[in-house]
Structures are given as structure tokens and as C-alpha cells.
Amino acid sequence: MRIAKSVSALILLAAGAVWLVAGAPRTDVATAERSEEAARRNVAYLVEVSGVINPASSAFIVQSVEKANQTEAECVIIRLDTPGGLLESTRQIVKAILASEVPVVVYVAPSGSRAASAGVFISLACHVVAMAPGTNIGAAHPVGLGGEQPDTTMTDKIVNDSAAYIKSIARHRGRNEKWAEDAVRKSVSVTETEAVRLNVADLVCGSVTELLDELDGREVKLPSGPRELDTEDADVEELTMNLRFRILNVISDPNIAYILLILGIYGIFFELSNPGSILPGVLGGIFILLSLYALQTLPVNYAGLLLILLAIILFIAEIKITSYGLLTVGGVICMALGSMMLLESPEPYAKISWQIIVAATASTTAFFMFAVAKGMLAQRLKPTTGKRGLVGEVGRVRGRSEIGWKVFVHGELWDAEGPETLEVGDAVRVKGMEGFRLIVEKYTE
Q1: CA distances, 341 to each of 206, 207, 337, 368, 389 (Å)
Q2: Domain-located, residue 1
Q3: Are 273 and 421 members of one domain?
Q4: How far is CA 322 from CA 268, 316, 325, 326, 414, in A?
Q5: How many structural domains does the chain have?
Q6: Which of 380, 399, 433 is the last residue in one of the domains?
Q7: Cβ count within 10 A of residue 194
Q8: Contacts for 213 with CB less than 8 Å, ≥ 6 apart
Q9: Is 391 helix (H, G, I), strand (E, B) or coil?
Q10: CATH number of the CATH domain containing 408
Q11: What domain range includes position 135?
Q12: Which residues are catalytic?
């Protein structure tokens, strides 16, 4: 019965993890039915995107655009602040925007924000590009997100492909193709006023309200033909990420992914150290699956990942093999090196914080040093049971026996051989044992 319950719990947890990673029913932004109230209102959807463009943020933007098309909203405003992200996720967003029958407006805001790298592709694909004062756009040169260092030929292929892609987007929207190509090839970046002057952006607005006033009456080109925006009395409705998207967005952070991987290693280690605990093994498996989901979107160096896996093997081997801590030392070294090599990218958003690497390595080292020290101490302790446990024990002479003396040692009365000069009540110490007979000597406290 207990095993059946454990298996059932494991199945439920695994199903939950699959639902989280593979996809849950779309609720917030993917509602397919159009409400009558939304049809009567002039709605402008506001979508907040802050951080790295990853599969979670990509799916959120795409579903927001889909909802706007289903409800025939007036427009979608993407308030953007991003350092960049994955090109594949960016392409999905760009395709959804280019195919949209509802105008999509990007608003680089608030002040101090940027639309860098992947943000440039997304911005140029939108029907209208607006920027808040004190913002910038550009630096779209592609970087290796596979952990490897591509050769010159591969680098040229990636750059040429990205340059052609962004030029086609700029041409489609009637924007500055030369600047768009330079943003990819030369990583140029411009301020909001320069962007308007260079025909990269359309407007500089200090708020969403001001943006709506500027958009009113502006004509945009949709796949079905031109359309004039009517945003004067539009109601702004903010779309937010549902729980699933928020969780996936959080675990896609390199630091979170690394922490999940370390926790997963600990869980598997404790399960193998104490078979039958179940909970550490289940949690460890879930954490490792979630970390692998996150790592697929990050610049993973497979040499670093293999070193961390080798560290796991060495930690597990320490349980089975008496190495006096050598396997643990090797595991800690592999873990430290693997952590430093795990993610390689020139972009800060795709790196693991040094503080987290040091904290994880130091805590792992401290734990295993403590465990090994306790193990070695236990090996040096004097035996407390059996024949060896009696040697060195001190007892008292209780009387004579057929072979010598009756000695009370360790809570028991034993036959013992000892000096004839002993007397009842004398303290004796056990020197050895022959069969069930003790060999004792007089003990002076």
C-alpha cells in the first residue's frame, strides 16, 4: 500500500512537471472567444515585456497579438525593455507581428530602457515604433548562444543571415535599411531622438496616454490593406503573464537554472545515500528536468555540463567506495570548473553570477568536508560492541571462579584470568579475550 501511494504521488508530480514544461491550457491571453463587451469597446492592449527574450516571453507576446486579433482590438502596445535574447524566439514574435491584422506598436519605455539585439528586430517589425525620452535602440550583432566558439565561416553565415533578415523587415516597414544592417554588422546604437531622425523610430512620447494621442489618426499598413488608428477614446487594458508563463520566465534565468541544477544534484545524492526516502529523489528529478528545460534556451557549454555530471558520479561513488575524501575532492573540483564553464556568452544576461557559483561550490565543499570528517572520525572511534569493544574496558573483581576470577565488566559478569594478587573489589582492565574468557590486569586509577 505504501509503495502504491508513493508511485501515485510520483506519477502526479511527473504529470505536473510535464504540464508545466510542455504546456498548460491557455487561459489569460489565449482566450479564443470574443466577448460582446470587448467588441463594443475601443480597446488598446498593453503588454509589458522586460528582460530577456526567451520562449516564455515569446509565447506571451504571440498570444497577446492573437487575442488582439480575435477581439478586434484597436492596437497592441508592447512596452519593451530588453537587452536581447534568442533569435528563434525573436523570429516567432516577428512572424506574429507581420501577420497581425491589428496594429502592433512598440514603446521602448520607461526612461532608461533599451531595445537591444533581439529588441531591434521586434521594434522594426512593429507598425509604429515609439520611444520614451532617455532610451536607446541598436546593437543587434548576433552572438554565439551555443557555448561554442564558431569559426570565421560560421560567424559570417550567422551575421549575413541576420543582416538579410533585419533588412527585409526594415524594407517591409519602410524604415532605414542601411542603419538596420549596421545595427547587425557594426552593433551601432542610437538615442530616441537620433532614431526618429534616422527613420528608425516614429515617435518620442513620455507616457502611454501621450502615445495614444499621437497614434490617433495615424495610418498603418496591414496585410489586408491600410488602416487609420482611432485611439482617442481607447481603453487601455493591460495583459499580464499567467502563472505558467511567469514560472517559465523565472526558471529561464541562468542563475535560477543553475540553482535548480544544483538542488537536483543534491536531491539525487540524498536519495541514493538513503534509499527509500522518496521525497529527495522526486524533488531532485523535478529540479533537474526544470533546469534542463531552462538550459536549452541558454548558451550551454557541454564540457562544463559533463564536468558537473562527472561531479555527480564522484559524489555518488564516495558513498560506495572508501576513498578517505579523495572522490569528494575530485567532485568539488569538477563542480567548480563545470560551473565556471557551463555558460559562455559575451552577453551578461546569459551568464551565471560569480557570487552564486562561489556560494554553491563553497556550500557543497563544506557539506562534503563535514561528512567526510565525520566519517573518518567514526572510523577512528574505539569499537563499543563485540570482542574488540571489551578490550580496554575497566571492571571490578567480584570473587573467585574455577579458572581464576569473576569480573564485572560492561554490565556483565565474566570469567577472567588475572594475577593471583587480585582481591575482591579491585579494579581491573581487560587486556584481551580467549573464547569466552577475559584476560585482565590490575588497574590503578
Answers
A1: 43, 43, 6, 22, 50
A2: no
A3: no
A4: 20, 12, 8, 9, 37
A5: 3
A6: 380
A7: 16
A8: 231, 232
A9: coil
A10: 2.40.50.140
A11: 27-246
A12: 117, 157
Is the residue at 8 inside a domain? no
200, 227, 246 - which closes a domain: 246
Q: What CATH code is carried by the domain that includes residue 120?
A: 3.90.226.10
Q: Does residue 16 lie in a domain region?
A: no
In terms of Cα–Cα distance, which of 274, 226, 283, 219 is closest to 13? 283
Tell me phi and psi for residue 41, to 5 degrees.
-90, 155
Asked if 441 contacts 428 with a C-beta cutoff of 8 angstroms, the reply is yes
CA distance 373 to 354: 28
Residues 133 and 208 in one domain: yes
Query: Do 163 and 187 contact (CB within 8 A), yes or no?
Result: no
- Are 324 and 242 in a shared domain? no
Using DSSP bridges, classify how beta strands 114-116 and 136-138 pair: parallel, antiparallel or unpaired.
Answer: parallel
Query: Do 141 and 185 contact (CB within 8 A), yes or no?
Result: yes
Buried b (16+ CB within 10 A) or exposed e, 155-168: eeebeeebbebbbe
Task: Count how many Cα atoms sit within 13 Å of the Cα of residue 28 in the half-sphere of its side chain.
Answer: 17
Q: Are 40 and 74 in contact (CB under 8 A)?
A: no
pLDDT tens per residue across all 445 residues of the chain: 433 444 344 344 444 544 444 444 443 444 444 444 444 458 999 999 998 898 889 999 999 999 999 999 999 999 999 998 888 889 999 999 999 999 999 999 999 999 999 999 999 999 999 999 999 999 887 764 443 445 577 778 888 999 999 999 999 999 999 999 999 999 999 999 999 999 999 999 999 999 999 999 999 999 999 999 999 889 999 999 888 888 877 887 888 888 888 888 888 878 877 788 888 889 988 998 888 877 776 767 788 888 888 887 887 787 677 777 788 788 888 888 888 888 765 555 567 778 888 888 888 778 777 776 776 676 676 665 566 667 778 888 888 887 788 888 877 888 888 887 787 888 888 887 877 788 888 877 6
Examine residue 315 and state whether it is found in any structural domain, yes or no. yes
Residues 151 and 49 in one domain: yes
- Residue 274 shares a structural domain with residue 201: no
Co-location of 88 and 231 in the same domain: yes
Long-range contacts of 35-40 (CB under 8 A, 24+ apart): 35/71, 38/71, 38/72, 38/73, 39/71, 39/72
**Judgement on whether residues 55 and 195 belong to the same structural domain of the protein:** yes
**74 lies in the same domain as 142:** yes
Q: Considering the entire predicted model, what is its pTM?
A: 0.66
Give residue 70's Cα distance to chain centre: 34
Place of cell 506571451: 60
C-alpha cell at position 263: 538542488
